[in-house]
Amino acid sequence: MTILERIDRNNTPRHIAIIMDGNGRWAQQQGEDRLFGHNFGVEAVREALRAAQELNVEYLTMYAFSTENWGRPKDEVDGLMDLLVRTIGKEVDELDESNVVIRTIGETSGLPASCQEELDLAYERTRNNTGVNLVLALNYSAQWEMVEAVKQISDLVNSGSLDKSEIDRELISSHLETKGMPDPELLIRTSGEHRVSNFLLWQIAYSEFHFTDVLWPDFKQDDLYKAVLDYQSRDRRFGLVSEPLEK
Ligand code: FPP
Predict the structure, then answer these.
(1) Long-range contacts: 221-225, Cβ < 8 Å, 24+?
(2) Which helix (H) or strand (E) holds 98?
(3) What is the average per-residue pLDDT within 92-98?
(4) How far is the CA of 215 from the centre of ligand 1 (A)?
(5) Is the CB of residue 36 less than 8 Å from the CB of residue 217?
(6) Alpha-carbon distance 111 to 70, whole Å?
(7) Closest Cα to atom 16 of ligand 1
(8) 245 falls in which pLDDT band (50, 70, 90)?
(9) Orientation of helix 34-54 relative to helix 221-232, angle to 10°
(10) Model pTM score
(11) What domains can you pick out in the chain, each with its CATH number?
(12) Which terminus of the chain has fewer CB atoms gathered within 10 Å of its CB, N or C?
């Protein structure tokens, strides 16, 4: 039986979030520079997307560039932005044909103009598709997102259009970048690191975490299926107790 065949199709996550990590170390192992690793990382994004399509996952959110990543050497940052523009430009036709919606979370206004244009075009082109939503987290950090939500909600309270007593979890969720999206049931991080690194902190309150030692450029469809199988083996209780065994 293949890994895919072992998956229970009635219990697949609607939303999978991935922290793609290990491009630099993978490149170093090949004696190449970090950008070489990022280039191969794009192939792994394709693998993850194909697997998500196979499982009818609705949202696949990929941490492609964090607010903190601006601190990397200029060559690497420029190279990553260039890679993003080239990849979206090259792939948009095929993604559109396979019914994918390309969208972003994060402060995209802080990205180079060429990136913003390519992302806007890709969204306009694919927004009416009904397949997987490929959500690229770009210039994203969860703490930035929460600060922005607090500012927006404060403005509403200050202007009198919202009363403090109306602030609840749903209201806060509706002011996050992920508004309208279900929270991820499954968060995957590659490369053996066990950190959340400022990713979707609010949304992962009840997510299952799957860590794998695979470096991101080596990530294949089967690695996503393994993560889903691991997820399906968990007893998700949401703070409650397990169902009592039937007598
Ligand atoms: C983490 O590896 C990877 C990134 C910060 C960038 C991820 C970006 C891509 C895979 C390209 C994305 C392209 C599209 C179209 C979504 P690292 O550099 O932190 O690796 P290290 O921890 O081994 O140094």
Answers:
(1) 221/4, 221/47, 221/48, 221/50, 221/51, 221/54, 222/3, 222/4, 222/51, 223/47, 223/190, 224/16, 224/47, 224/48, 224/51, 224/52, 224/55, 224/188, 225/3, 225/4, 225/7, 225/51, 225/55
(2) none
(3) 98
(4) 10
(5) no
(6) 10
(7) 64
(8) low
(9) 60
(10) 0.95
(11) 11-140+183-232 (3.40.1180.10)
(12) C
- Report the length, in residues, of the chain: 247
3-class secondary-structure state, position 17: strand
Ligand 1: centre distance to CA 63 (Å) = 8
Q: Nearest CA to 98 among 65, 134, 62?
A: 134
Is 86 exposed, middle or buried (CB count within 10 Å of its CB: 0-12, 13-18, 19+)?
middle
pLDDT by residue (tens digit) across 99-147?
999 999 999 999 999 999 999 999 999 999 999 999 999 999 999 999 9
Q: Which atom of ligand 1 is nearest to the CA of 28?
A: 23
pLDDT digits (tens, 9 = 90+) for 219-239: 999 999 999 999 999 987 888
23 CA distance to ligand 1 centroid (A)?
A: 5
Please give all residues whose beta carbon lies within 6 A of any atom in ligand 1, as ranges: 20-25, 34, 38, 41-42, 45, 62, 64, 69, 83-84, 87, 136, 191, 216
Beta-bridge partners for 19: 189
User: What angle (nearest 5°) sits at the alpha carbon of residue 126, between those of residues 125 and 128?
Assistant: 110
Nearest to 223 by CA among 104, 35, 45, 91: 45
Q: How confident is the model at residue 244 (pLDDT cuts 50, 70, 90)?
A: low
* DSSP-derived secondary structure letter, 73: -
What is the residue type of 110?
A: G
CB atoms within 10 A of CB 174: 13
